[in-house]
Design goal:
By secondary structure, the chain is an alpha+beta fold. It is 51% helix and 19% strand. It contains 19 helices and 13 strands. The chain has helices spanning 2-13, 17-53, 69-78, 80-85, 119-125, 147-156, 182-185, 201-204, 259-262, 270-276, 296-306, 317-320, 322-360, 362-370, 375-406, 408-419, 426-429, 440-466, 470-474, and strands at 56-59, 66-67, 86-103, 106-117, 196-200, 205-213, 216-221, 228-234, 243-254, 265-269, 282-283, 285-290, 313-316. Strands 3-4-10-5-9-8 form a six-stranded mixed beta barrel. The chain has a two-stranded antiparallel ribbon with strand order 2-11. The protein is elongated and about 105 Å long. Residues 182-186 have low confidence and may be disordered.
Length: 477
């Protein structure tokens, strides 16, 4: 009992030890905030990548793609194991392209990724309709202009009617003129339905830092729905690829809040893109959504066996994005090691202060040992003191870290208003807020690590105190 009483008395009276508590507190708080923000970015990145790629991807090794994708999907469905594991499948045709449009009277050219999809099938995979701007969470997303977009299209385009072909008149045996066949003439007033495209949000918008609303930069529209763009790419099956192009009308935007995708991806109807690229019946990938992602490895192995004779790449989404995810994980580990050095600094402070306490309390230690305190008892006093400092510092640091994490966006806004410069540049990711994700396991490990460091750095002074001879300690001046 005397050990606990002495530890508590030292904690209350030794104000120099408060510096150790503050050091541990700041180290723990920093680790929690940084880990939470990095986990938030990592979690959001994984969600976006997973949504864009689905659980398993079957793809070709070149832009020519592969044929018979409908037969392949039917073959997969016929397998009992795969049919039980697979929830949805969607074919995709992807190729690089050049996007051209006019802005303020001058042409603008941008490189993009042109992706042909069936919107209903793609929406069933997830990660698509949730990010649409005008058709957000629609059960049946389409490449179709809404009423506002159709009005804008009608204003920008004058109706053009191609003269119908004059049919050949077959006169009767007596030279009579047959009755007119209006079907051959077609309907010159039929509504024109342009091919539509869904553009990445950052392609069709730009962020205006000079205009603020609620402290945030305003997004200006470059390509509103109903305006035209030209997409130029290459055909996919000939020995000598040649350029092909077509005009598309903007009908919607996809906003994943990932600048790499929002500034490059353009979605168009799959059938039209196949026809444009002379790739009828061919795609570059089949995306597969599983009922249980944990079974993805088994599904990939089964698909490898099924298509062993074909030159196809079959991967899970995290294998396909392995280098990027591994780089993030390594960066997070390295940063944790560096940040733990902050707590190590607090540990050296504990070592120095405890060494001073042992010197100052040498006579007191001698009295304790003369009264019967064992070497282990004296050692436990100082190790318990280090444990108490670690516990208090970790508890305060955890509270401070959680408060900062939960209010990080308000803090960032306040600092930005004080300094006049944005700490978190939303032009990079197009996130409206700094993403955070608090993991209970991370908090536990940070606390355990800080407490362990505080205890370890108190061992050396504790050993020195325990090894003091009582008679020499009592004679110490």
């Amino acid at each position: 009992m005397y050990k606990l009483l002495l530890c508590w008395r030292y904690l209350r009276t030794r104000y120099l030890a408060m510096l150790c508590i503050v050091s541990v507190m700041l180290g723990v708080a920093t680790l929690i905030v940084v880990n939470s923000v990095m986990s938030g970015f990592s979690t959001k990145l994984r969600e976006r990548l997973h949504g864009l790629l689905s659980d398993v991807v079957i793809e070709s090794h070149d832009i020519a793609g592969f044929g018979g994708y409908e037969e392949k999907m039917a073959k997969i469905r016929k397998d009992p194991f795969l049919n039980q594991q697979i929830e949805h499948m969607a074919p995709t045709l992807e190729i690089f392209a050049m996007l051209q449009f006019n802005y303020a009277g001058r042409p603008v050219n941008r490189t993009v990724r042109m992706i042909g999809i069936d919107p209903k099938q793609r929406a069933a995979l997830g990660g698509f309709k949730e990010h649409l701007v005008r058709q957000k969470d629609s059960d049946n997303p389409q490449f179709k202009l809404d009423a506002e977009g159709q009005k804008r299209y009608d204003r920008l385009h004058l109706p053009v009617f191609d003269p119908p072909d004059v049919p050949k008149i077959d006169f009767g045996p007596d030279g009579e003129i047959p009755p007119p066949n209006n079907e051959d003439l077609g309907d010159p007033f039929a509504e024109f339905k342009p091919q539509c495209a869904i553009l990445g949000y950052a392609i069709a918008h730009y962020r205006d830092p000079s205009t603020k609303e609620n402290g945030k930069s305003v997004d200006r529209v470059l390509l509103p729905p109903g305006t035209d763009v030209i997409l130029t790419t290459v055909n996919g099956v000939t020995a000598k690829p040649r350029p092909v192009y077509d005009r598309f009308t903007v009908c919607d935007y996809i906003k994943t809040e990932m600048s790499e995708y929002d500034s490059q991806y353009v979605y168009v109807p799959l059938k039209h893109m196949q026809k444009l690229r002379a790739m009828e019946g061919r795609v570059t990938s089949i995306q597969i959504k599983l009922k249980d992602e944990a079974e993805s490895k088994k599904v990939v192995e089964k698909l490898h066996d099924m298509f062993a004779s074909e030159h196809l790449s079959i991967q899970t989404w995290d294998e396909k994005q392995g280098p990027l995810l591994a780089a993030i994980a390594i960066e997070k580990k390295v940063l944790n090691v560096l940040l733990f050095l902050i707590i190590a600094v607090a540990g050296f402070g504990i070592l120095a202060i405890f060494s001073m306490i042992v010197m100052e309390k040498t006579r007191d230690i001698g009295v304790l040992k003369a009264l019967g305190a064992s070497n282990g008892g004296v050692m436990k006093i100082f190790i318990g003191y280090g444990l108490l400092l670690g516990l208090v510092g970790a508890a305060l640091g955890t509270g401070l870290g959680l408060v900062i994490t939960n209010n990080v966006n308000q803090i960032e806004s306040a600092i930005a208003s004080w300094t006049g410069s944005e700490i978190f540049d939303r032009n990079i990711y197009y996130f409206q807020e700094i993403p955070t994700h608090i993991e209970a396991s991370m908090i536990i490990w940070v606390n355990l690590g800080s407490i362990l460091i505080a205890m370890l750095f108190s061992v050396l002074p504790a050993l020195r105190a325990a090894m003091l001879h009582p008679v020499r300690a009592l004679r110490f001046e």
